[in-house]
Amino acid sequence: MKNILLFLIILLQTALFGDNNPLYEIRGESSEIDANLTQFLKQWRDNTTKPIEDGNYTNIFLHADITKGKIVALTFDDSPDENNTDKVLDILNHYNVKASFFMIGSPIQDNNATVVKRAFDEGHLVLNHSFTHPHLKTLANDEIIQELNATSEKIESITGHYPLLFRPPYGDVNQQVMNTLNTNGYTTILWSLDSLDWAIKNKDAIIENVINHIQPGDIVLMHSSRANQSSVDALPEIIEKLQQLGYKFERLDEMLGIKAYR
Ligand SMILES: [Zn+2]
């Protein structure tokens, strides 16, 4: 029965989306973004999804199993900071939505360790987004391992849990980076829908982009650092509109059926 359902969904998606296989697609676009950036993004998306589709990158996720229905995971990168991370947590708390945070190690200091702990205590995942936010492709293997482990150790010292889910800064991976991540026990999480909140500073354009492109099983990329006031402003309406469309929110570990921590 489940196989027939899956077959029908794939058939429907093929009819709707033509040649593009939505299983290996990264969506999100806006007229607020200029032609050069749009072209750059298309190139990056093609270069990233192709090796996943071909099976060369393993242990990497763009989205959940689409047969699970209208489920979506909100993910927030680049925290912690002293301001917007708390605001995002306030909004999630208000709507009783659980989300996943990919935090950077080096900005975690005494003055914001409380928000790291708060995110964990309120039921969100606190995960690894490297120590200094570098382009991993430019680093040697031992430097990549240092970026990974220093961050997971710092997060563990605050939350008591050592993250095993990793999001590469800029989504920047190649075969060597993937091999290093896998050898060191990390699962790589990218996204299937980019809110583009890092490029668009207009809250309505962010909301429109997410709502117009959402699909079941999406992992939505958002940000919650000090530079992302527009993401904070867009979040309540994104949650409300997705709920009106019948979407439920899950953490990555629930949605993907994987372990978030060691
Ligand atoms: Zn980032």
Describe the structure.
The protein has 262 residues and is α/β, with parallel strands linked by helices. It has one domain: TIM Barrel (Alpha-Beta Barrel). The protein has nine helices and nine strands. The strands form two sheets. Strands 2, 3, 4, 7, 8 and 9 form a six-stranded parallel β-sheet that branches. A three-stranded parallel β-sheet has the order 1-6-5, with helices on one face. Strand 2 (71-79), helix 3 (84-95) and strand 3 form a beta-alpha-beta unit. It is globular. Bound molecules: zinc ion. The site of zinc ion (ZN) has 5 residues, from strand 2.
Summarize the entry for a quick read.
The chain has 9 helices and 9 strands.
Helix content: 40-55%
Distance between the termini: 35 Å
User: Rounded to an integer, what's the Rg over CA atoms?
Assistant: 18 Å
Low-confidence blocks of residues: none
The CATH architecture can be named as Alpha-Beta Barrel
The computed structural class is alpha/beta
Question: What is the element layout, followed by pairings?
Answer:
Blueprint: H1 2-17, H2 35-53, E1 60-61, E2 71-79, H3 84-95, E3 100-103, H4 113-121, E4 125-128, H5 141-159, E5 165-166, H6 175-183, E6 187-189, E7 193-194, H7 203-213, E8 219-223, H8 229-244, E9 248-249, H9 252-256
Helix pairs in contact: 3-8, 5-6, 7-8
Bound molecules: zinc ion.
Zinc ion binds at residues 77-78, 129, 133, 169.
